[in-house]
Design brief:
2 domains, globular, 76% helix
Length: 258
């Protein structure tokens, strides 16, 4: 069944919904400075989507996944990640606190968002690899996982740098370790786990609907470049450069003689 909503209209609907949530989250955040700091990368990401929309519109699935992640992030930035009142929400809705049921002793909303980073954003990253770099087979699943892991690590470094730069309560609120010395490691691990799950699910779906799935995987492991790189490639390029320079010199001599 063909979807009736065009990509542009669907993206506009999601964008409008996000703007409503974003506007609501600007009112009375718990820590205004932390809210601003948390949303710097959000605005950069949205600007990227706007700039690339005409030349590279994502699928509806990717837009939906990114929308859900951004909404989760906005909630975290409004309350600060360590103070999102999900216990109060579950108490009000279901009559119990989630932490009591799970036996948790800290606020785990930041853990959820880090896990969701891998679970929700690895597929849009895969779409970019697939459509721009044209990766196939195994690499179409490993490279999105790899980028998810590396960007998760990069974000932890950004958090650390911001905490060192601003210090005090703002640095602590942005870092959000809640006293856990392994917080960064656990966040990266959860992002990786989310990406692994997303890529496994994607691979299973493709295995079911893609008739040449096994052949594509086998082809992705075939060696395409028979010659080694490194110093061998440098030598080849240097020889090629000298030949091109000699040919240009010869052409110039011929032109002067004429």
């Amino acid at each position: 069944m063909r979807l009736r909503i065009r990509h542009s209209r669907y993206a506009l609907i999601l964008g409008g919904c996000f703007l409503v949530l974003f506007a609501a989250m600007t009112f009375s955040p718990i820590d205004r400075k932390d809210w601003i700091l948390e949303n710097v990368l959000t605005l950069v990401f949205i600007l990227f989507l706007l700039v690339t929309f005409r030349r590279f519109p994502f699928s509806r699935i990717s837009y939906t996944l990114m929308f859900v992640f951004l909404c989760m992030h906005e909630i975290g930035s409004h309350f600060t990640y360590a103070l999102v009142p999900y216990n109060e929400w579950t108490q009000s809705l279901f009559g119990f606190k989630l932490n009591d049921v799970m036996g948790w002793h800290r606020n785990h909303y930041d853990r959820l968002v880090h896990f969701s980073y891998g679970l929700l954003l690895s597929y849009p990253i895969r779409e970019m690899f697939h459509r721009i770099v044209d990766v196939k087979g195994f690499w179409g699943y490993f490279l999105p996982l790899d980028v998810t892991m590396s960007t998760s690590m990069l974000y932890e470094l950004i958090e650390w740098g911001a905490a060192m730069l601003f210090g005090g309560d703002l640095g602590a609120a942005y870092l959000g370790t809640q006293g856990d010395i392994w917080d960064a490691h656990k966040d990266m691990g959860l992002a990786t786990l989310g990406a692994v799950i997303a890529m496994i699910v994607t691979a299973l779906i493709n295995y079911y609907i893609q008739h040449d799935f096994a052949r594509e995987w086998a082809e992705s492991f075939r060696v395409k470049g028979k010659k080694p790189l490194g110093e061998d490639e440098i030598s080849r390029l240097m020889i090629k450069k000298k030949r091109a320079k000699r040919d240009r010199t010869g052409d110039e001599d011929v032109s002067r003689q004429e």
